[in-house]
UniProtKB/TrEMBL annotation:
Species the sequence originates in: Mycolicibacterium cyprinidarum
Taxonomic placement: Bacteria, Bacillati, Actinomycetota, Actinomycetes, Mycobacteriales
SUPFAM superfamilies xrefs: Nucleotide-diphospho-sugar transferases (SSF53448)
Keywords, alphabetical: Nucleotidyltransferase, Transferase
Extent of the signal sequence: none
Gene3D superfamilies: Spore Coat Polysaccharide Biosynthesis Protein SpsA, Chain A (3.90.550.10)
Protein known as: 2-C-methyl-D-erythritol 4-phosphate cytidylyltransferase
Length: 225
């Protein structure tokens, strides 16, 4: 069964266009992410209407054969983007949901997500071990203890879902911002944890542009995969 990747570009980015369109190490975050996702999935980029022309222009000329741009309804918040991306998918379809603020996607992570979905998982979350020392402080700011990091994990994008499960989470969330992990945990839906990417990270652009460029340029594959 075909796996479809959904990449929301919600209305909030109308005030933060550099986070989507400004080149970093020669390629915009939008194009870099789509290049990576298209290696394993059909891709639906779902954008708020105010950003639609800019999204189409950024993707034009890339010779994408598996990428479609869809305009979200209503206000174009994240919930509407995800819901619009799910429209028209077959029952039981598999979905990889990404986030534009996570611009580096490794092929290995995508492959593991897709494999787990095809093996029957309904929700798949990449994670990595916490390697830093983590401390507890009290209300006065006094350090009181060291947390056992063996029980701690960072969670990452992209994330895999059975399309029907994701549709229910969006419908039940009641939040335009829509946090699928919080929605998932509140419903008790089975969650499969897989090995993530130690270099995956969320960035705030343009503030983190130099740091992101350095990370990308240190990778052999400059698409960030």
């Amino acid at each position: 069964m075909t796996v479809t990747a959904i990449l929301p570009v919600p209305v909030g980015f109308a005030e933060r266009r550099d986070a989507v369109f400004a080149p970093v190490a020669g390629t915009s975050p939008l194009v870099r992410i789509v290049l990576a996702l298209e290696t394993a999935c059909d891709v639906v980029v779902v954008t708020a209407g105010i950003l639609a022309d800019s999204v189409r222009e950024a993707l034009a000329g890339q010779n994408f054969s598996r990428v479609h741009v869809v305009v979200a309804g209503s206000t174009g918040e994240r919930a509407q983007c995800v819901a619009a991306g799910l429209l028209g998918l077959d029952d039981g379809a598999h979905v990889v949901l990404h986030d534009i603020e996570w611009p580096m996607v490794r092929a290995g992570t995508l492959d593991r997500i897709v494999a787990m979905l095809r093996a029957g998982a309904v929700a798949v979350l990449p994670s990595s071990r916490v390697t830093d020392s983590v401390k507890l402080i009290d209300a006065a700011g006094v350090l009181t203890a060291t947390v056992d990091r063996e029980q701690l994990r960072t969670v990452q994008y992209p994330r895999g879902f059975d399309a029907d499960v994701l549709a229910v989470l969006v419908k039940q969330s009641g939040s335009d911002a829509f946090d699928e992990l919080e929605a998932l945990l509140s419903t008790g839906t089975p969650l499969t944890i897989i090995e993530g990417d130690d270099e995956a990270l969320s960035v705030e652009l343009p503030r983190d542009s130099d740091y992101l460029a350095a990370l990308i340029e240190n990778r052999q594959d400059l698409t960030g995969r």
